[in-house]
Amino acid sequence: MHKVLVTGGAGFLGSHLCDRLLADGHDVLCVDNFFTGSKRNVAHLLNHPYFELMRHDVTFPLYVEVERIFNLACPASPVHYQHDPVQTTKTSVHGAINMLGLAKRVKARILQASTSEVYGDPEVHPQREEYWGRVNPIGFRSCYDEGKRCAETLFFDYHRQHDLDIKVVRIFNTYGPRMHPNDGRVVSNFIVQALKGEDITIYGDGSQTRSFCYVDDLIEAFVRMMASERGFTGPVNIGNPGEFTMLALAEKVLSLVGGKSKLVFRPLPADDPRQRQPDIALAQDKLGWQPKVALEDGLKETIAYFRQLLGG
Ligand SMILES: O=C(O)[C@H]1O[C@H](OP(=O)(O)OP(=O)(O)OC[C@H]2O[C@@H](n3ccc(=O)[nH]c3=O)[C@H](O)[C@@H]2O)[C@H](O)[C@@H](O)[C@@H]1O
C-alpha cells in the first residue's frame, strides 16, 4: 500500500484513477480546486476509509506526506483551458513546480499527465516521442500546449538536477463516462447533442482526425507507468492508434444513439491540429501495454452514462 496524491482527482480522469488506486489497496489523497472537477465524480468514495478529499489549487504549495504523486490538475478541454488562459499556464507551470518541490521534499515518485498537444499541429504522422512538435507559442491554444511543454521541461530538469524519480505520459484524446456534459470536447459534445436531438456541430469540414482512447485503457497505462522500473522516465505516448475523422465520429455516434440530429458545420477553431495519431511502440515495449477497447464499445459505455445523466 502506498500513500498516493492525485491532483485533479475529482476530474473525469482523476476520479477513475482514484477508483483504481483504492481497488488496488492504496491510500488516496484526492486534491481538486473544482474548476472543472466535480464532487459528484467522487461522491461514491467519500465514505471509503482510505479516501480523503481536499479542496486545493496546485498553483499554491501543498505540504502533505505522500509516496506517490499523479499530477493531473489542469482543465483539459480547449473551451475550458482558453476561458482563463493565464490561470491555465499557471496551473501547468506553478502546479508542476509545487508538486515537484513536494516530491523532492518527501522523496516521492511523481507522474505528469502530459498531452499529445505538446506535438501541436504535427507534420510527422503518426507521432513518436522523439518528435519535437510544431506548436504556436503565441496562439489561443498556447496556454495549454506551452504550459504542458514547460511542465515536461521542469520534470526533466528536476530529474537531472535533483535526481527526482519522474514519469511522464502523453495522453491522446481520452474519453469515457464522467466527462462533463458541457465539457466541450468532441466525444461528449456529439453524444450529448445526439441524445438531445440537437444539431451535431462539426468544426471545419470534419476531415481533421483524432485517435480516441477509452478511459479504462488509459488508467491501466497510468498504473503500469507508475510501477515501471526507476530508470524509465518516458515521455511515453498513451493512446489508441485507431484514427478517425470527425465526420466519421459523428456518423458513428449518430448510428449508435439513433435519433434525428443533423450535422451542421461551424468554423474551425484557431490552430486546431489537422491530424493526430499516437505511435505506441514504446508503451508496448516498456509497459507491455496496448489499448483493448474499440471505439464503438467505448462509445456505447459513454452513451449509456450520458443517457442516464440526462435522464433519457
Ligand atoms: O487529448 C488530447 O490529446 C488533447 O487534445 C484535446 O484537444 P482536441 O484534440 O482539439 O480535442 P477536442 O476539443 O475534443 O476536439 C477534437 C476535434 O473535434 C473538433 N470538434 C470539437 C467539438 C465539436 O463540437 N465539434 C468538433 O468538430 C475539434 O475542432 C477538433 O478538431 C484537448 O485539448 C486535451 O484534452 C488533450 O490534451
How would you characterize the overall build of this protein?
This protein has 312 residues and is α/β, with parallel strands linked by helices. The termini are far apart. It is globular and about 55 Å long. The chain has a domain at 3-176 and 214-240 and 277-292: Rossmann fold (3-Layer(aba) Sandwich), CATH 3.40.50. It is built from 10 helices and 13 strands. Helix 6 packs across helix 10 and helix 8 (246-257) packs across helix 10. It binds uridine-5'-diphosphate-glucuronic acid. It is an enzyme of class 4 (lyase). One of its GO terms (cellular component) is cytoplasm. This is UDP-glucuronate decarboxylase. Pathway: Nucleotide-sugar biosynthesis; UDP-alpha-D-xylose biosynthesis; UDP-alpha-D-xylose from UDP-alpha-D-glucuronate: step 1/1.
The total strand number stands at 13
In helices, the fraction of residues equals 25-40%
**What is the CATH topology descriptor of the domain at 3-176 and 214-240 and 277-292?**
Rossmann fold
For the largest beta-sheet, the strand count, sense and barrel status come to: 7 strands, parallel
What is the count of DSSP helices, taking H or I runs of 4+ residues? 10
Proportion of strand residues = 15-25%
CATH class categorisation of the domain at 3-176 and 214-240 and 277-292: Alpha Beta
What is the CATH superfamily classification of the domain at 3-176 and 214-240 and 277-292? NAD(P)-binding Rossmann-like Domain
Please state the average pLDDT score.
Answer: 97
The helix/strand order is EHEHEEHHEHEEHEEEHEEHEHH
Calculate Rg over CA atoms.
19 Å
Q: Can you tell me the overall shape?
A: globular
Cofactors, ions and other ligands in the entry: uridine-5'-diphosphate-glucuronic acid
Cα distance spanning the termini: 41 Å
